[in-house]
Amino acid sequence: MLAGLSQGVGQMAFPVRTCALVGRFADPRIAESLGALLPHLRQRGVTVLVAEDAELDPAMDGVQRMPETEIPERADLVIAIGGDGTLLYAARLVARHAVPLLGVNRGRLGFLTDVMPQDMLPAVDLALEGRLERDERPLLSARLRGARGVAESFALNDVVMQKHDTGRTLDFETRINGTYVNTHDGDGIIVASPTGSTAYALSCNGPILEPDLPALVIVPICAHTLSDRPIVVAGTSVVEVTLLERPDTHAHVTCDGAVLGAIYPGDRLEVTTAPECATLLHLAGHDHYKLLRSKLHWGRGSFER
Question: What is the set of active-site residues?
Answer without folding.
Answer: 84
